[in-house]
Amino acid sequence: MEVFHNPFARHPVAFELLPEATHWYEENGVRLCSTVYETSILWSRTIIQDEDQRPPKLEDFLSGNEVEQ
């Protein structure tokens, strides 16, 4: 879970409320990350396709031959 702390929040969420989450926060104008895990994965992608295109399969992404957009 990734938590992005709002530096302008009136009622900020305490880090201790979600102890195993990855916390992104701002300190002295710098965006910092605090996590208990060695690696953190944050990735998202939206593919918008026409109705007549086939849905992509996992193999399409792993092979690099992604469905045309």
Overview of the structural elements:
It contains one helix and three strands, in the order E-E-E-H. The protein has one helix spanning 58-63; strands at 2-4, 22-27, 30-34. It has a three-stranded mixed beta sheet, with no helix packed on it.
What's the arrangement of strands in the largest beta sheet? 1-2-3
Any idea what the shape is? elongated
Q: In percent terms, what proportion of residues is strand?
A: 15-25%
Q: Based on helices, strands and strand pairing, what is the structural class?
A: mainly beta
Low-pLDDT stretches are none
Number of helices: 1
Query: H/E series, N to C?
Result: EEEH
Q: What's the end-to-end separation, in Å?
A: 29 Å
Describe what is shown at a glance.
The protein has 69 residues and is mainly beta. Helices cover 9% and strands 20% of the residues. The chain is built from 1 helix and 3 strands, in the order E-E-E-H.
Descriptors for this entry?
single chain, 69 residues, mainly beta, three-stranded mixed β-sheet, 1 helix, 9% helix
Task: Summarize the topology.
Elements: E1 2-4, E2 22-27, E3 30-34, H1 58-63
Parallel strand pairs: 1-2
Antiparallel strand pairs: 2-3
